[in-house]
Amino acid sequence: MVCMVPNLDEDKKIGELTTELEGQPDSGKKSHHVAVAFGASFGAAFVVVIIVVFLVWWRYRHNQQIFFDVNG
Question: What does the UniProt keyword field contain (predicted)?
Fold first, then answer.
């Protein structure tokens, strides 16, 4: 018959590793939030610029005078 006795040193190491890993995601979450905020801001600004350029282009094309050179 084999008796399984847990090794307390291994459990302690696993607990320390878990504690270390739990401390790291806070900085990772913060940098992830900063990256998402920066990406969203950049994307929104890009969309606004595209809309303004499109409106300026449309207005330029729409307001062109039609000139017929008729020699009569």
Answer: Membrane, Transmembrane, Transmembrane helix
Nearest 5°: the CA angle 40, 44, 48 is 170
- CA gap 20, 14 in Å, rounded: 10
Q: Residue 48 region, left (φ>0) first, then alpha (ψ -120 to 50), else beta?
A: alpha
Taking every pair of Cα atoms in the chain, the longest distance, rounded to a whole number of angstroms, is: 118
Q: Distance between CA atoms of 6 and 45, rounded to whole angstroms?
A: 58
Q: How far apart are CA 43 and CA 48, in angstroms?
A: 9
Stated pTM of the model: 0.52
Token match 């900063």: residue?
34
Q: Which amino acid is at 7?
A: N
Expressed in angstroms, the distance from the first to the final Cα of the chain is 118
**What's the gap between Cα 5 and its chain centre?**
49
